[in-house]
Amino acid sequence: MMMTVQVSKSVTALDKIDLDAPIFDPGAFRLNDEQAGIITTARELGQTVFAGRAAAYDRDAKFPTENYGDLHRTGLLGIAIPKKHGGLGAGYQTYAIAAAEIGRYCGATALTWNMHVCSTLWSGPLADDLDMDAETRAEHERRRAVHYKRIVEDGAIYSQPFSEGGAAAAGSVAFGTEAKPVKGGWIVNGKKIFASLSGHADYYGVLCTEIAEGEKASRRNTLYLALPAQSDGVSVVGDWDPLGMRGTVSRTLLFKDVFVAEDAALMPRGVYFQAAMRWPHMFLTLSPTYVGLAQAAYDFTVRYLRGEVPGTPPVKRRMYPTKQIAVAQIQIKLEQIKTIWFQAITEARANPTKEQVLRAYAAQYSAMEGANEIATLAIRTCGGQAMLKSLPLERIYRDSRCGSLMLPWTAELCLDRIGREALYETGESDE
């Protein structure tokens, strides 16, 4: 079944839809027509559908189930699935920009969509860049076709629970969730915290450590398995009442003697470890959401000062020099974020140079911290009404504050790695 971009028909009649300008203009950023079409679909869906639902998802800490139906309808649920498997066949750059457009209108939808898309991005174009022998690659192709079919035909939602409360998510030690080999598959035990889509995904793409009898845990033995959400031994526990990103519903997942069949593997043995070492931009995929939030804060500020925000009096505040200077500061910050981030996502590939890896860290830091800096300045500039929950800037501010905390590349870890890796070559020490 070939999934097409359903919104494209309405996009041909833009005079009927007052679409926002794209975050990344296709001409200025040298995007091809196919990329521009996919990204326009994401922007139209975000602006005309997702934006109107975002406040309710945030208020009730409710997962955006309806939005996922729309992502499936428009083909975006399979954005990174190869065309031969019925997807849109988008690469890393195209996905990242589309995700930024969705984040512009609903941060929680964009962030959870990332968790879903990574299951296809990592097992698809990313895995294609990595080393496998012919037999392993053929087996991987057969297995991933099963996962892709579920998404394209049935609208299956995959998640990517990562964090465990220790150093594993940062890549320092092996994952504590363990997979014991048994006949026909594995028995999985462990837990994942801050597990976005918990209770709402159809499959949990769990990173765990394969440990045979008598072996010690090793990061080299990381497995990436799609556990069916309805499997015996899978449970969702805890409450979810956070500062922001409330619609992600990131509760705790528990796995107790869960049997997982061999065909559940999203990557062959050893390939995730190879990816983590050779394809570091795989961990940059949380950042598009925050680029979108930064754009959203700017958009709101300009409209508010022009008296054009729906639901507010048409009072213009743009004539004051203090407001004009603040808008200039916001736009400068936004352009700085966009520029370094676009360069970083364009460089995403296997075996990047040291300079490209350092730039990826810097782009992550710039997006995660910069989005909240822009939102903070936007609230100060717009004034007291901007704090009201009836307006989106208050939610944008709270959502944007969460980015710097997200593993595996938190703001603190980015600073640490930039400083250390800039000053030391591999293997160097002061001893």
Provide a short characterization of the protein structure.
This protein is α/β, with parallel strands linked by helices. It is built from twelve helices and seven strands.
Give the helices and strands, then pairings.
Elements lengths: L7 H4 L21 H28 L4 H9 L18 H12 L3 H22 L5 H21 L3 E2 L18 E5 L2 E11 L7 E8 L11 E7 L5 E4 L13 E11 L9 H8 L8 H19 L15 H26 L7 H29 L9 H10 L9 H13 L8
Parallel strand pairs: 1-4, 2-4
Antiparallel strand pairs: 2-3, 3-7, 4-5, 6-7
Give the helix tally: 12
Distance between the termini: 60 Å
Second rung of CATH, namely the architecture of the largest domain: Orthogonal Bundle
CATH topology of the largest domain: Butyryl-Coa Dehydrogenase, subunit A, domain 1
Report the C-alpha radius of gyration, rounded.
22 Å
Based on CA inertia axes, which overall geometry fits? globular
CATH class of the largest domain: Mainly Alpha
Look at the structure and give the mean pLDDT.
94
Unreliable sequence segments: 1-15
Assign a percent range to the helix content.
40-55%
- Sheet having the most strands: 7 strands, mixed
Report the sheet-strand fraction: 5-15%
Could you name the CATH homologous superfamily of the largest domain? Acyl-CoA dehydrogenase/oxidase, N-terminal domain
Order of helices and strands: HHHHHHEEEEEEEHHHHHH
Structural class: alpha/beta
Oligomer: single chain
Secondary structure tally: strands: 7
Number of domains as seen in the coordinates? 3
